Amino acid sequence: MWMTRVAVTGDRNTINPELWHACAGPLVTLPPVGSLVVYFPQGHSEQVAASMQKDIDAHVPNYPNLPSKLICLLHNVTLHADLETDEVYAQMTLQPANSYDKEALQASELALKQTRPQTEFFCKTLTASDTSTHGGFSVPRRAAEKNFPPLDFSMQPPSQELQARDLHDNLWTFRHIYRGQPKRHLLTTGWSLFVGGKRLFAGDSVLFIRDKKQQLLLGIRRANRQPTNISSSVLSSDSMHIGILAAAAHAAANHSPFTVFYNPRASPSEFVVPFAKYQKAVYSNQISLGMRFRMMFETEELGTRRYMGTITGISDLDPVRWKNSQWCNLQVGWDESAAGERRNRVSIWDIEPVVAPFFICPPPFFRKRPIPPGVPDDESSEMEIFFKRAMPWLGEEICIKDSQTQSTIMPGLSLVQWMNLQQNPSLANQTLLAETLQSLNGAVMQNLGTTDLCRQYGLHPQTLQHNNIQFNTNRFPPQAQEVDEIVKV
Amino acid sequence: MWMTRVAVTGDRNTINPELWHACAGPLVTLPPVGSLVVYFPQGHSEQVAASMQKDIDAHVPNYPNLPSKLICLLHNVTLHADLETDEVYAQMTLQPANSYDKEALQASELALKQTRPQTEFFCKTLTASDTSTHGGFSVPRRAAEKNFPPLDFSMQPPSQELQARDLHDNLWTFRHIYRGQPKRHLLTTGWSLFVGGKRLFAGDSVLFIRDKKQQLLLGIRRANRQPTNISSSVLSSDSMHIGILAAAAHAAANHSPFTVFYNPRASPSEFVVPFAKYQKAVYSNQISLGMRFRMMFETEELGTRRYMGTITGISDLDPVRWKNSQWCNLQVGWDESAAGERRNRVSIWDIEPVVAPFFICPPPFFRKRPIPPGVPDDESSEMEIFFKRAMPWLGEEICIKDSQTQSTIMPGLSLVQWMNLQQNPSLANQTLLAETLQSLNGAVMQNLGTTDLCRQYGLHPQTLQHNNIQFNTNRFPPQAQEVDEIVKV
DNA sequence: ATGTCGGCGCCCCGCCGACAA
DNA sequence: TTGTCGGCGGGGCGCCGACAT
What we know:
Two copies of one chain form a homodimer.
Chain A: H1 17-24, E1 36-39, H2 41-52, E2 70-81, E3 88-96, H3 102-113, E4 121-125, H4 128-131, E5 137-139, H5 141-147, E6 159-165, E7 171-179, E8 184-187, H6 191-198, E9 205-210, E10 216-221, H7 237-254, E11 258-262, E12 272-274, H8 275-284, E13 292-298, E14 304-314, E15 330-334, E16 345-346, E17 352-353, H9 377-390, H10 415-423, H11 430-438, H12 450-456, H13 461-466
Antiparallel strand pairs in A: 1-2, 1-12, 2-3, 3-11, 4-9, 5-8, 6-7, 7-8, 9-10, 13-14, 13-17, 14-15, 15-16
Chain A binds a DNA duplex (21 and 21 nucleotides) through residues 127-130, 132-136, 138, 140-142, 177, 179-182, 184, 186, 188-189, 191-192.
């Protein structure tokens, strides 16, 4: 098992980790127990704000002694699901790190390499017919054939009883039948009880997975409905924010453990990040205005796909409370996006840089140890001190790469011109673009999806062919995992 | 209106204050806006613990600079009801008092005098028949006649359409019919929708009230079911406790406003107390071991009744976190009580002393300004300093009364003997009791319900007559409001 | 391949008075 | 006075294939 040390005891029952992760979505990973993580109180606060549908208030005090990030040891992770809504969340016990722990560092590196074993599952968004009282559930053909026990086709019509357990280990029973003209798989008897019991509506999703023991498991994913508005009636939004900040501040001051709930579906972004992931992003990604990047998003049916975007700004999300924080300090625009569809702020570790070191965004001058643009100088020196104190094994040799040369954002274009181009591709003068690209003739174009670039400028690949532009992709062999496509012309 | 300054805007709708109070129960009063109150963070914390069904954890830090009580100005009160459960709660904005405000003090005195206007209403606990799908709701005859619009008895059978609004201003429609043999009032069509919509079960209660505009209002009170277990999935229990303490500490340090939610049905006891109520209790009630008192409780059908009890201990509820707090520092036993039926800890202001100054529990020696036994000396002096600083108009003349004489708990009885007597009335030697009481011949017995006393010792009033005991009730004329009964023999 | 609908059988919701507590 | 039940009528739940996309 990929994460054997995760405790999975819920309040009463044992949560099946495969089902939990299926409900959480393909992009949600939990750092391994015992590993080093970086905790961002600001992100934690955002989760509360999102849950309460209310932003942080001016009444909430600043905690000047609470840094914007805490490097912690992850002591414990338990998986949970809300008894009312089946909403998944994880409880993590963190302890601010105050001693060298080589194992913990290695464990956090494991987090980067682990891949989820592919379990057989399917996810379907419920239609009006699926949720109406008029009938049952129409099972997609392939899904039924792959995930359900085979039917006895000697029966007329073929049918069987299916049993599946949900996150709370409740057993649901359905009649599975193959009938109709044309033939199709249906869940009939028992289905309406499930829909009613879980209060599902059209737009919500159900997912069936088969665990290792060939048992059928059943989860739900609700559509992004309007604020659930858990006005809570227990604690004011202010007190919740204060509770988070004060708990973290107290733990930081005493190096004592504290507990957080991570709700992957409610939280805009993960706020407990494997240390190795953070480290890799901060010290190997050269970030600057105009930089192109890719980022993973979840598709409707629990798949993933990458979108391309451009960094349009680097600034504090909250310059008052969280000055010089790296949390979501990158403003971004997306190549394809209806307004507001995707987040317009991300953190360094959320993105995969489209590495083109001689093309885009080197640091303005050479340094032996470049300071990442996301980290202003004053905080950077603080961090160095902390790192040296807390993790002396990180010597001087880290973080020196990918910065041998310098260039401007795009040769022959000022930043203003470039931004205009970015926002209005239709205004781009094709000749200008061609000249610009031609000046790069012979340069390294690594990990840059050409069709993406062309779409960015409203061109077709053929246009580039006409201009006789050459791309050299041989100097740095692309790594299959990180490159969508390389086009040789 | 008795509390015209209370804002009653909910998140979306306006909450009817009469309905809110009806659902909250007869004992719940909210201090007037603009008045001085005493806020107990410990009690607030208890409300969270009760809601989460989880006690405060050792991880939660102490806030040594946060006093066990804060004298605050009550800026704002808004009434709310949970959209899912209809649970009522109030949001209050408090600001630690740092200036003299005569109006605020007077306003807090108003809280003691205000009586709720008697609105026409009835409350019925739902039976199995009421909640089953087999039929409708059986309306108690008197309730229907008093609260519902009169039926047209020329119809056969007499019937009408009733409409009532709930706390969220949703309109519910019922068919009200008078039929059956024998005749009875029933709600039929529409009732099951209500039961289903509110998820009511046998044991829950519904209440109908008529407001000033003769509109029918409809509320629910759920039975004390097992923990609703709002495990919240947003914030750990620890963070909630920390949030409360940190918010109060921050507000106290800065004299800045903060917000609390008071959930009268979930909270074991009110933690925002009118200052005048607190003051009166602390400085006029002489508290000591063995003292007899009465306390109001709610009956099933939204009435009230008094129970009698005895103070069996005076001690800190939480000697570590809240040393010398007056919050629930009285341990009590009840005259009639199945084990655990009633709270075994109360605060001074929860109880009405059964005043018998020469009989029970005077201070051990005379002081010009007696220190209430509930307030240990060190904190008491702190309080005096605070009072003088914050409220200089409270001069030296306060709190001097009811302590002209001294006596022991009961003449001729040691505390141990008295406690034994208390716990095992059957062991009480009638002669001893008679002698004891006889020694009080001619003393003042004010505000002491004789029948209560007799029940306490397992005697009948006639027994006392036989022993020819005289009670003089003339010296201090009893106040009708505070005396259940005075027996002249 | 699968979403929606007309048809229709039957379950159970819900209205009734009987009866008893 | 009112809680529970047997009786029973009808509305809607839910199973079916037709048909369209």
